[in-house]
């Protein structure tokens, strides 16, 4: 069984262009993202587009020895399926690169649980039953389920958002697992989509050593500092909120 994390990245963004290469404390958000993911113990693969504007991301990957696949800018589902095939993955963790504070150890534990279940029809995530802050999202599923979605999902929205065919159980054969915590912390927002999000992340990374904190420590920090939460509290999540 070959497990790996595929993170999707692009330079285009309507609300915050070039966001993954913006910096905090002299380090790019993408560097923080990848560093955190490596704590999972799993290999990480970058899935970007063939658009010229994303050449910088392909160069970034090449300079760091990060395996990279370039595919469609709009059909992200095909990009994921091709990345999984290219690198021979049988278990896929899907994340998005605008989440610089993802908890790699949390992801690693989830994948261990997933593999122990040994069920290729299982879709495991912490986003359908949301108790973690936005920006800590991940999904785990088999190459079999990914290939099925790629073969059967037809709408532009399904293709753009990768997993609706799975988490809406269009086949009727998907089984679900949920990664949750006892107390709901979904009110917090740690994703990078707007200037206020960037402002909060910079404060957390530069003043509170957030890059070294676990998900639980990040949540405790936000609970203790409502003035930090207020920085991006007014941001409305885009309508399709789970898979970015």
UniProtKB/TrEMBL annotation:
Gene Ontology molecular function: nucleotidyltransferase activity
Listed CDD domains: GT2_SpsF
Keyword Isomerase on entry: no
Nucleotidyltransferase keyword on record: yes
Keyword terms, alphabetized: Nucleotidyltransferase, Transferase
Annotated GO CC locations: cytosol
Protein name: Acylneuraminate cytidylyltransferase
Organism: Hymenobacter rubripertinctus
């Amino acid at each position: 069984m070959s497990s790996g994390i595929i993170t999707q990245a692009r330079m285009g963004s309507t609300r915050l262009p070039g966001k993954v290469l913006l910096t905090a404390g002299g380090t790019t958000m993408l560097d923080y993202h990848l560093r955190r993911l490596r704590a999972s113990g799993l290999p990480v693969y970058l899935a970007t587009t063939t658009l010229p504007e994303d050449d910088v991301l392909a160069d970034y990957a090449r300079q760091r020895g990060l395996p990279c696949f370039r595919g469609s800018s709009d059909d992200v589902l095909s990009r994921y399926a091709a990345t999984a095939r290219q690198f021979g993955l049988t278990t896929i963790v899907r994340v998005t690169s605008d989440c610089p504070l993802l908890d790699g150890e949390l992801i690693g534990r989830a994948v261990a649980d997933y593999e122990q279940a040994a069920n290729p029809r299982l879709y495991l995530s912490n986003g359908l039953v949301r108790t973690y802050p936005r920006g800590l999202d991940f999904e785990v599923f088999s190459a079999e389920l990914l290939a099925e979605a790629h073969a059967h999902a037809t709408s532009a929205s399904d293709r753009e958002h990768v997993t609706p065919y799975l988490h809406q159980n269009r086949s009727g054969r998907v089984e679900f697992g949920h990664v949750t915590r006892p107390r709901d912390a979904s009110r917090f927002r740690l994703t990078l989509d707007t200037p206020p999000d960037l402002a909060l992340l910079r404060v957390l990374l530069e003043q509170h050593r957030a890059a070294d904190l676990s998900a639980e420590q990040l949540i405790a920090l936000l609970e203790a500092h409502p003035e930090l939460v207020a920085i991006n509290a007014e941001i409305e999540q885009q309508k399709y909120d789970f898979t970015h």
